[in-house]
Amino acid sequence: MGICDRKQRQKEAIRSSILEASWSLVQKEGWQSLSIRKIAEAIDYSVPVIYDHFENKEALLLEFTRHGFQKLNEVLTHAIQSHSDPEEQIEAVAYAYWQFAFTHKEYYQLMYGLGMQSCEMVRSIPEVQQFTQLLLESMKRLIDNAGNKEAHAFLKLQTFWSTLHGLISINMMGKDPGREELNEMVLKDFIRSFITGIKA
Amino acid sequence: MGICDRKQRQKEAIRSSILEASWSLVQKEGWQSLSIRKIAEAIDYSVPVIYDHFENKEALLLEFTRHGFQKLNEVLTHAIQSHSDPEEQIEAVAYAYWQFAFTHKEYYQLMYGLGMQSCEMVRSIPEVQQFTQLLLESMKRLIDNAGNKEAHAFLKLQTFWSTLHGLISINMMGKDPGREELNEMVLKDFIRSFITGIKA
DNA sequence: TAATTTTGCTAACAGTGTTAACTTTTTTTA
DNA sequence: TAAAAAAAGTTAACACTGTTAGCAAAATTA
After folding, report:
1. How many Å from the CA of B8 to C1' of D10?
2. Rounded to whole angstroms, how far apart are CA atoms A37 and A179?
3. Which residues share a beta bridge with B147?
4. Which of A90, A98, A151, B16 is least surrounded by CB atoms within 10 angstroms?
5. A174 neighbourhood in chain B, CB within 8 Å
6. pTM score of the predicted model
7. Could you check: is the Cβ of residue B37 within 7 Å of any atom of nucleic acid strand C?
8. Covered bases, chain C (protein CB within 7 Å)
9. Cα–Cα distance, B128 to B73 (Å, whole number)
10. Cα angle at A177 between A172 and A183, to 5 degrees?
11. Residue A114 φ then ψ, to 5°
């Protein structure tokens, strides 16, 4: 019977509209001011309807976090696939990661809990593990290519990731004007010294 | 007249008790669940009294942020003063910073807005500038001591800080068990490669 | 058509930050 | 010392927040 199908579609449509409305609100006013009531108003439904599709607000935010990591994985994969030389790959990954953070600022803030709650349970998301795997393989190739067989891929990955994230998050909270050039330089400097560090 | 003095002392006493009660609550339940009403209850005063001493909640949190940076500056200064060799200084700073973050976890979370709001206006705090200055001078000494005169102290400072902060914040949200050994290794690896990177 | 399930809404609960208006206490003035 | 002025503190509200119990209306099934 097609009735169930239609109901399924309708339910899915509401779910989508919740996500769309939420995203629209976030772009206008940020995660901090996103509320269930505002979402309900935006989709022309009453508040409890939202709880039919998401267990609570945290679950709704988790959905966006996952989506964010999916997007990040996409751009990183693309960056890796665009180059064959491991060095160039890592360089491209760094730039892609950087660019993602600032072109999808809202996503990045949510993903890393910058100015948010939501610290818990982020790590259990499968997309995060995929993300780690992605970078790890890139790192392994770089190490294999370089002479330094002692370099530990996972170790280097952590440093790589930490530096990028640290740089981004420090700059995201409180932006001095004229910092963008500096950031560009820091990023360049880091990538170069990171790669030479592995080669040495 | 001594009346004004006494009133001043009483006012100061209330202010202190607000800060003490807040800190006690934070240690029990974290920043996220700290509320004006809970503070008021803890100090046996009504809610508006708190607004006589702090313009709003953000101002109260800012006080703790400043205090946190003061403490951080102290331990970093001590780390620097304990060594004469610039290399050893930087190494000590890294460890001290690291240790501060995890032994004063609540402070660090507030200072860097991990799982919080409060992103704005952090950078304008004088203690933050002092902190930057502290690290910058350490970095300059390291560079002067090494042959590499081209290294730009501010650039290296940014990398240094970013990596540390990135490492810490990534680990603070969602802690896998058994990660502590890895962290120790990553930190060691980073410090060594950072220093050799400057010397090269 | 009648019974049943689904769908959606109203209204409430327990919180949050913040503040206007009032009362009580203390200090100053006459 | 008694009245007036100033200060200190309180109550109660406003406008929000996430969340949910209970009810009305609509759609589906028998």
Report:
1. 21
2. 37
3. none
4. B16
5. 119-124
6. 0.83
7. yes
8. 6-12, 15-21, 27-28
9. 9
10. 60
11. -80, 115
